[in-house]
């Protein structure tokens, strides 16, 4: 009796994306796809997107509803998830937990660190056609392009200022909230900005301890810590006042002085106290006011060590030691320490 020997079933081979797959490989792929489907078993009823946890699905649903239950206590911003709020808070506090392993430069979020890392590798494929500067990421080039077009999409909700970079807005917000996360290692004085342009700048302050003033005026031998300070000073010699008020045409030597002047017309008081809700036209007025709550007296008398919250009060007090009375009444021939 002839027994027909059954031929073994040949292994089916199929080509997919240039690779050869066997039945066994295909079975493993199906198992993996089923596992991935199971992993994302929480589906959004509005768009069909899948998530591995119910919590992630709930966060996603807020993108449809617009719900933002996590509010920042320092500004009016709200967020759909707690991790976004935590990241935002680092900008208020000046925290930078992500540091570059190559140069130790610190960043407030992981994405900014990743963008920075490209500067070390030399891989900068995104080039500006206007000035030929190159960047590692497309988003970095987009930020840079705003400097050419003057685009400032990040607006302060407490005043009319706008910024081209979100980190500059975060630094500006500290002028409203009064938060000063940066302290001087020499005198412990606190600042709202580390290297941000403005008066409350730690980097600029540190130079006051070293005495280094590399920017010299050629007209009067005065020296300055920064080039911008020298530029402001030079206008005192030239009389130049390039910033004029649109309401009364009064001219000013600095943009900051113009901004302060404009508030005398508008009555705008963007700096408010979070303790008693009192509002002020200038950040410096708020800083002085806050000392009434904190009891801080940063100005001390060199003769008796008595402390004062305002520098002018210290100056008035010092005259009691030296006996100087600059304010003279001609009617009664009496002199006084202060004009009040």
Automatic annotation (TrEMBL):
Keywords: DNA-binding, Metal-binding, Nucleus, Repeat, Transcription, Transcription regulation, Zinc, Zinc-finger. GO terms for cellular component: nucleus. Its main location: nucleus. InterPro entries: Snail/Krueppel_Znf, Znf_C2H2_sf, Znf_C2H2_type. PROSITE patterns: ZINC_FINGER_C2H2_1 (PS00028), ZINC_FINGER_C2H2_2 (PS50157). Gene3D superfamilies: Classic Zinc Finger. Residues 42-69, 70-97, 98-125, 126-153, 154-181, 182-214, 215-242, 243-270, 271-298, 299-326 form the C2H2-type domain. The keyword Iron does not apply. GO terms for molecular function: DNA-binding transcription factor activity, RNA polymerase II-specific; RNA polymerase II cis-regulatory region sequence-specific DNA binding; zinc ion binding. It is found in: Nucleus. Belongs to the krueppel C2H2-type zinc-finger protein family. This is Zinc finger protein 84-like. It comes from Fundulus heteroclitus.
């Amino acid at each position: 009796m002839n027994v027909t020997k059954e031929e073994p079933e040949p292994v089916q081979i199929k080509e997919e994306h240039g690779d050869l797959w066997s039945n066994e490989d295909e079975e493993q792929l199906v198992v993996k796809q089923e596992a991935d489907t199971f992993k994302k078993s929480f589906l959004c009823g509005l768009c069909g997107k899948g998530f591995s946890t119910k919590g992630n699905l709930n966060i996603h649903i807020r993108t449809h509803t617009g719900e933002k239950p996590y509010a920042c206590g320092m500004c009016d911003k709200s967020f759909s998830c707690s991790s976004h709020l935590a990241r935002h808070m680092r900008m208020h506090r000046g925290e930078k937990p992500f540091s570059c392993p190559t140069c130790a430069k610190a960043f407030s979020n992981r994405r900014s660190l990743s963008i920075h890392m490209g500067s070390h590798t030399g891989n900068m494929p995104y080039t500006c056609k206007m000035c030929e500067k190159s960047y590692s990421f497309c988003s970095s080039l987009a930020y840079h392009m705003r400097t050419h077009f003057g685009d400032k999409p990040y607006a302060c909700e407490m005043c009319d200022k706008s910024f081209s970079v979100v980190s500059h807005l975060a630094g500006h917000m500290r002028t409203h909230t009064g938060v000063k996360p940066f302290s001087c290692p020499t005198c412990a004085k606190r600042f709202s900005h580390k290297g941000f342009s403005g008066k409350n700048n730690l980097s600029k302050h540190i130079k006051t301890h070293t005495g280094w003033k590399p920017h010299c005026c050629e007209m009067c031998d005065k020296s300055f810590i920064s080039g911008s300070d020298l530029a402001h000073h030079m206008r005192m010699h030239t009389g130049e006042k390039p910033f004029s008020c649109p309401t009364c045409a009064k001219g000013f030597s600095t943009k900051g002085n113009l901004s302060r002047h404009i508030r005398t017309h508008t009555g705008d008081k963007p700096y408010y106290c979070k303790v008693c809700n009192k509002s002020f036209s200038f950040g410096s007025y708020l800083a002085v006011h806050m000392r009434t709550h904190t009891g801080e007296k940063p100005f001390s008398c060199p003769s008796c060590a008595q402390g004062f919250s305002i520098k002018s009060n210290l100056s008035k007090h010092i005259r009691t030691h030296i006996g100087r009375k600059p304010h003279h009444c001609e009617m009664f021939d009496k002199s006084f320490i202060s004009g009040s």
